[in-house]
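Title: Comparing notes on inverse folding

I've been comparing how different people in this forum approach sequence design from structure. To keep things fair, I'm posting one structure and asking everyone to reply with a full sequence. Here's the target:
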């Protein structure tokens, strides 16, 4: 894989760390800026909304720009608003920076996916995608815990400074390494997407929704149902991240074969895994094992579906990257909402059952198309 892909992955790592780190910084932000903890939660909601809207919007607006220019512009905005967030004493300003950061993040990821797949052989899109999405999984393992430690000992602003600092070498590397060339076809050409691409995006949203439905509430599942001490939760969240990184890495090679059988088998095992987790959540050993296994399978299946979507939309890579980014974030936004409703109805096992239902729905919907087909885009 070209070295520039790892620079793009570094930027994605910084952006994913920013997206997830507020889960551990919310109370400190609320106290420092004089708002309630629920109000501080708006920072997370604003980021999710910005990601959903920003990816296709910036992909469309930047359809004629050179990719390097768009990557540099979005990453520069992302870096700058984190500096502003670290300096501000106003909650309203911080909220605005989160929206801008999400828009920049979404636009960057959309263009980065298109760029990554254009810098490798036509049959290596899956491996290129796995490098970028590997940055997200590494954020779960390293970035988010490190942000929590910084927030605890140096204050929440230090985590914002750290994200800006990590973004800087990626910015310099992109300036030096990404070729300057047009982004590709016009928006009008990109709008004529194939039905297979649409279904693949829906499948990706469903699987990612299942992932975040349970991952968001993994802590109370492990403490209230499994009975583990809260001191074990960070280690098990990191274990989920280790599994997700392994899943993304391995799936990249299988995705490039575009054989539908492995992803269907993995999807079936993922469905059974969520059911098994719900049934055995009161027991420590199966819970720990399933945290690792479900992390690996969730990201393996999800990243494979996104790679298939990029293959299906190869004639309009920038818009396809934007739609793929939006689909992932629709799932990431909807999953926790569904999981929260399930907790109210069925307790902390509820999100695990909802995750199983979402994956089951994806498997049924996937039967309507040849999900790994080699035919050209529509």
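Reply #1:
Here's my take.
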């Amino acid at each position: 894989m070209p070295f520039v892909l790892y620079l793009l992955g570094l930027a994605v790592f910084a952006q994913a760390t920013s997206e997830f780190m507020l889960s551990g910084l919310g109370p400190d932000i609320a106290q420092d800026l004089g708002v309630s903890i629920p109000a501080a939660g708006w920072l997370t909601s604003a980021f999710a909304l910005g990601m959903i809207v920003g990816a296709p919007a910036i992909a469309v607006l930047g359809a004629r720009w050179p990719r390097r220019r768009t990557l540099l512009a979005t990453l520069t905005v992302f870096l700058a608003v984190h500096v502003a967030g670290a300096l501000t004493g106003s909650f309203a300003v911080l909220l605005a920076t989160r929206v801008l950061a999400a828009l920049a993040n979404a636009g960057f990821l959309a263009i980065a996916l298109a760029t990554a797949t254009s810098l490798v052989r036509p049959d290596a899109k899956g491996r290129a995608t796995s490098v970028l999405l590997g940055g997200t999984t590494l954020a779960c393992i390293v970035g988010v815990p490190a942000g929590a430690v910084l927030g605890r000992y140096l204050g929440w602003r230090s985590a914002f400074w750290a994200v800006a600092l990590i973004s800087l070498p990626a910015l310099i590397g992109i300036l030096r390494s990404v070729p300057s060339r047009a982004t590709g076809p016009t928006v009008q050409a990109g709008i004529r997407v194939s039905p297979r691409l649409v279904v693949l995006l829906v499948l990706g949203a469903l699987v990612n929704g299942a992932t975040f439905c349970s991952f968001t509430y993994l802590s109370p599942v492990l403490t209230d149902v499994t009975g583990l001490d809260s001191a074990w939760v960070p280690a098990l969240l990191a274990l989920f991240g280790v599994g997700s990184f392994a899943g993304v890495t391995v799936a990249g090679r299988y995705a490039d074969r575009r054989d539908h059988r492995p992803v269907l088998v993995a999807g079936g095992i993922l469905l059974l895994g969520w059911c098994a987790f719900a049934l055995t959540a009161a027991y420590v050993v199966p819970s720990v094992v399933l945290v690792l296994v479900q992390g690996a399978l969730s990201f393996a299946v999800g990243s494979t579906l996104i790679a298939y979507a990029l293959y299906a939309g190869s004639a309009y890579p920038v818009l396809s990257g934007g739609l793929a980014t939006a689909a992932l974030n629709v799932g990431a936004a909807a999953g926790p909402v569904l999981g929260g409703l399930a907790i109210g109805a069925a307790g902390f096992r509820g999100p695990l059952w909802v995750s199983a239902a979402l994956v089951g729905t994806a498997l049924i919907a996937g039967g309507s198309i040849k999900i790994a087909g080699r035919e050209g885009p529509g």
